[in-house]
## 1
Amino acid sequence: MVSNLKISWLKTKNDTESFKIFQNLGFNVYNLEEPEKTDEKIQELIDNNCKTIILSNEIASFSKDIITKYKKQDDISIIIASGKNIEKD
């Protein structure tokens, strides 16, 4: 049986590096122009049956209560992607 798994990624509009490969492959990567509306976008995705939401570390800092609200639910996964710190010589 194939499940209807919906995954979405969220990042700020100015973030050109996070989730680039997924965006190039045509996955649902949303660029939020107003990071303050992170909770609203997460709720919208959940209302549209999105079961896994991956947030850039930066955008996660704008979520006030949604991450906590869904933290213990088995049917919704909200994941915060860790950022990369690459040092250049």
## 2
Amino acid sequence: MLDDVLASSGEARQRAFDAVREMLARHETAEEMIVRPLTRKAPDGERVAEGRMQEENRAKEVLAALEKMDVESAEFVTTFTEFRQSVLDHAQAEETQEFPLLRQNTDAEALVKARDRVMRAEEMAPTHPHPSAKTTAANYVAGPFAAMLDRARDAFSSSDK
């Protein structure tokens, strides 16, 4: 999906970016709500969870800035190219640091339940980045309201097209 943004132009680039933005906003919110608390329970989990939260909080800021840019601008392309790499680096950190820690310290049944909870949380999560939601608690408190506003925003913007 990330490559689709850079490989397209015009309205196609906007649609590709909107899809990436929504997927990342939903996915990262769900991870922050469900996965990070599990990670924190593991030995050295606080350090690992905090590292991923810092990456995600920075990503929310960049994604919010990208949302305001013209997708055809050089600034968008440069910023998105850097953002793309940070997303890939974040995913790599999850795969090499966080997920092995969870597999080693969380029973299989709890991991299956967490996966299912992540999928449900993604369905209800905000569709736009909210940089002010910097903690798991903030996502639980502000998330439902932000998601409702995001869906209204999305409905209005799609009716404008």
## 3
Amino acid sequence: MKKFKILSKSTLVDSPYCPIEKHIVEFHDGNQGEWFVNTSRDAVIVIPFLETGEVILQKSYKHGGGEVVTEFCAGLIDEGETPEQSAKRELREETGYGGETFSKIGEVLANPTGSTMRYHFFVAKKCTKVGERKLDLSEQIEVFLVENLEEAKKLLTDKNTKTSSATMAGLAFV
């Protein structure tokens, strides 16, 4: 397989949350075409466990999908942060919890056809409430606990539960 040869790039959207570039590329057969790429920063997905085995989940309104989804804690990695630092920060900001240990358990491409973004998956163990949440202005998040990982899997894979592909991918790693 051959990578596309990038002949030129131009920025169409210069936004920290959804930067879009237009590429003129040469395909493997020599033909040329346009390709649009979201060059967003990578993100973390945190699967947090209390010492009791309970799992922290959240319901969040997602404007792109126009739905409230049930998911794990997640967010973009800030410039200068490592994925682990971001996982700790996002868990604290979105849930008010901190974890004693954070272990990276996997990584996937978010949308390899049209995006450079990768999801970095972490398990946070021995989580405890450490303070108040610090949500962004656009975030609407309700945090709740489920009894254990099996109950979380049942809920997240229920046909009536709206969730995200990133959360579903996280289930494959735990």
## 4
Amino acid sequence: MIESIYTQMEFWHWLTIAVVFIILEILSPGVFFLWLGLASAGVGIVMSFLPQLSWQSQFFLLACFSISSIILWRLFRKYFPPQEAEVSHLNRRAEQYLGRSFTLVEPIVNGTGKIKVDDSTWRVKGEEAPLGTQVKIIGVDGIVFDTEILKKTE
């Protein structure tokens, strides 16, 4: 009974199995079913040219294509590693200003002052400095910038 099912396998059966594996890949975490899907598609393509292949040969091809696709992917990732994604400042807006310099709009007195960044005002902390002093953002503590003085105004 089981052998008769396998002997009736045609190329479109393998392509259907490939689609099912790809759908499973989309619905599941990780990258596992993709390789089985690609291997099944490969067997389907071979079956379209060699429809008389035995079921044993078909499953042997499936195993070989699965292992080959995984090995090829790992080699590809080894020689072409993914580019580092740009650091996201989503929900951490203050970090995008690190290293930039601004002019004090309120002097730093008792360790705190204010700068204007775009359309908003931010609190800064650092050593005492008069109004108009250029400061560089060197750190972020919550919503307060840590600063160092670049150029004092006289």
